[in-house]
């Protein structure tokens, strides 16, 4: 099971590393409208969720294959859900994420919702820690619900010198 979880995380990070911003530019900070967009969030959330679910199927080589297939299918479904998020959804998500990462207590869940679309979600940060470069970082979990379908994902973000939070692979 441990190997499958590592594969699922590696697949999700690979998807995230391949994300580009508008006009193919490299991704920027998630909170500053940088290169990570609504489809990227959906794709990563779906890939992680699908990979974890796939890792619970079978044993040995079959379990690895199920993890990979689950990650791919989850990524495709998450990408589709991400497309459904509009600018108001992303603004609510970004504002809540910034607030959660900056001020929420560890384990405190902050919700967001767009009453016009009905889309919603949550962000729950963990404890602060300092990475090797001295940046303050936090792990977090998030949910995004679009059309009654909820995707869940986990990540790490570090505070940048300008005060924004950027997703990191550390």
List the helices and strands and how they pair.
Layout: H1 2-17, H2 38-55, H3 60-84, H4 87-103, E1 110-113, E2 120-130, E3 136-146, E4 149-159, E5 165-168
Antiparallel strand pairs: 1-2, 2-3, 3-4, 4-5
Helix pairs in contact: 1-2, 1-3, 2-3
Keywords:
about 45% helix; 5 strands; five-stranded antiparallel beta sheet; alpha+beta; about 170 residues; 4 helices
Written overview of the protein:
Helix content is 45%, strand content 24%. It is of the alpha+beta class. The chain has one domain (1-170). A 5-stranded antiparallel sheet has the order 1-2-3-4-5. Strand 4 (149-159) and strand 5 form a beta hairpin. The longest helix is centred in the middle third of the chain and has 25 residues, at 60-84. It is globular and about 45 Å long. The protein starts with a helix and ends with a strand. The model is unreliable at 1-35 (pLDDT under 50).
């Amino acid at each position: 099971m441990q190997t499958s979880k590592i594969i699922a995380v590696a697949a999700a990070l690979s998807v995230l590393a391949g994300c580009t911003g508008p006009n193919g530019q490299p991704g920027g900070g998630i909170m500053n409208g940088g290169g990570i967009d609504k489809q990227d969030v959906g794709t990563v959330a779906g890939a992680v969720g699908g990979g974890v679910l796939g890792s619970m199927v079978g044993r040995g080589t079959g379990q690895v294959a199920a993890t990979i297939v689950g990650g791919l299918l989850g990524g495709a479904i998450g990408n589709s859900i991400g497309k459904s998020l509009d600018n108001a959804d992303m603004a609510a998500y970004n504002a809540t994420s910034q607030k959660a990462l900056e001020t929420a207590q560890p384990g405190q869940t902050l919700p967001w919702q767009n009453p016009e679309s009905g889309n919603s979600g949550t962000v729950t940060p963990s404890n602060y820690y300092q990475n090797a470069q001295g940046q303050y970082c936090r792990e977090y979990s998030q949910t995004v619900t679009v059309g009654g379908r909820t995707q869940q994902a986990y990540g790490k973000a570090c505070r940048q010198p300008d005060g924004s939070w950027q997703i990191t692979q550390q």
